[in-house]
């Protein structure tokens, strides 16, 4: 009898411990939906007791995040010497000093593909970069080239979830002797990516670039897709961006002139960056590649030239831009020489707007068909 009473008395304690454990687990790994990560824009501030000036002293002081190293909490309009530190969204951002990092635990669907979008601004070294990790995957994003007049750019990085709970880490590997020196970061968002499928009448997947990374609705500078190893999963899958440090810009119809649909790509890095997709072909068979070349309506004017390559064929398409939008169609017919053929687009020159920022031709609505299949379709 006494033993049974003891069990009855201890059961509420066990239940309470289980509830506490569940609550802790809910805080430590946030269930993810498309859009901002929990406190992804850092508007939930650290308690002043865990701050020393702008430096965050508490490891868990920034709600939803865990920090390591020299991390600063920066308010809009704050100065670094004579330089004003702007914030792209809201009132606050975070600055990562040398070897500093910030991380958050995320709950994902194992096996699904995702893209992270975030904003960053260089404040010190010319060659600043950021390491992005979604355990166990990691990548390096160069932020040395600035593509906007504000100094802020939005970047994307894609991955396949290897686990249902992962650690998302942003790390400044440090290229300066100054402990506090490092990039400003803000506005972290996530988007579930649906691997594009081939559509009828087009051998290219995602030829209209409708599937891509999250674009912040309140920013007007698009999202950069940085260079990647060919084995990496692209935010513009299955398109791959080949370069050393330069990017292409993913743009939307809400802020730019887009030839078709709601999304397109602006080639903002001249001949230093190529965009390609590899497709299955039959050696000896003829194919027709068609695509749109135009301008984004962002003041990028002049001769905007794109060169397209496929197998041994190539074509240059020039659009005379007034910077107000518009496009023309390009055509390349070629004969496949291999079972796998790379379709490649590259801008043939650096172009800048009146404010000195980089811009370039827009690519959209790319399609590839077998000439034999195309003729049968026309009949």
From TrEMBL:
Coiled coil: none annotated. Residues 35-191, 203-366 form the DUF642 domain. Transmembrane segments: none annotated. It is found in: Secreted, Cell wall. Gene3D superfamilies: Galactose-binding domain-like. Residues 1-25 form the signal peptide. Pfam families: DUF642. Keywords: Cell wall, Glycoprotein, Secreted, Signal. The keyword Secreted applies. This is DUF642 domain-containing protein. It comes from Oryza sativa subsp. indica. The lineage of its organism: Eukaryota, Viridiplantae, Streptophyta, Embryophyta, Tracheophyta.
């Amino acid at each position: 009898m006494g033993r049974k009473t003891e069990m009855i008395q201890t059961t509420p304690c066990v239940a309470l411990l289980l509830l506490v454990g569940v609550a802790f687990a809910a805080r430590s790994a946030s269930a993810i939906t498309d859009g901002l990560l929990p406190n992804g824009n850092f508007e939930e501030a650290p308690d002043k007791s865990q701050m020393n000036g702008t430096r965050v002293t508490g490891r868990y002081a920034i709600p939803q995040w865990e920090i390591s190293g020299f991390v600063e909490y920066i308010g809009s309009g704050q100065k670094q010497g004579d330089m004003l530190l702007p914030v792209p969204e809201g009132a606050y951002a975070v600055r990562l000093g040398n070897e500093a990092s910030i991380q958050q635990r995320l709950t994902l669907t194992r096996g699904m593909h995702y893209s992270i979008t975030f904003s960053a601004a260089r404040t010190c070294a010319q060659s600043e970069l950021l390491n992005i990790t979604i355990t166990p995957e990691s990548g390096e994003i160069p932020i040395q080239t600035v593509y906007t007049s504000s100094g802020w750019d939005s970047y994307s990085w894609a991955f396949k979830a290897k686990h249902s709970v992962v650690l998302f880490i942003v790390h400044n590997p440090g290229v300066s002797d100054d402990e506090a020196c490092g990039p400003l970061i803000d506005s972290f968002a996530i988007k579930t990516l649906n691997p594009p499928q081939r559509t009828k009448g087009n051998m290219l997947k995602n030829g209209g670039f409708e599937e891509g990374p999250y674009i912040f609705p309140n920013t007007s500078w698009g999202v950069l897709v940085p260079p990647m190893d060919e084995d990496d999963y692209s935010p513009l899958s299955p398109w791959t961006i080949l370069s050393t440090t330069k990017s292409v810009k993913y743009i939307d119809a809400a802020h730019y002139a887009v030839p078709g649909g709601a999304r397109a790509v602006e080639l903002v890095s001249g001949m230093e960056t190529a965009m390609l997709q590899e497709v299955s072909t039959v050696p000896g068979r003829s194919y027709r590649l068609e695509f749109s070349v135009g301008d984004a309506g962002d003041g990028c004017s002049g001769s905007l030239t794109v060169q397209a390559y496929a197998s041994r064929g190539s074509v240059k398409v020039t659009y005379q831009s007034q910077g107000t939008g518009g496009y023309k169609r390009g055509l390349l017919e070629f004969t496949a020489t291999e079972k796998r053929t790379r379709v490649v687009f590259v801008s043939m020159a650096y172009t800048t707007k009146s404010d000195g920022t980089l811009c370039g031709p827009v690519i959209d609505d790319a399609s590839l068909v077998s000439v034999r299949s195309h003729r049968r379709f026309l009949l």
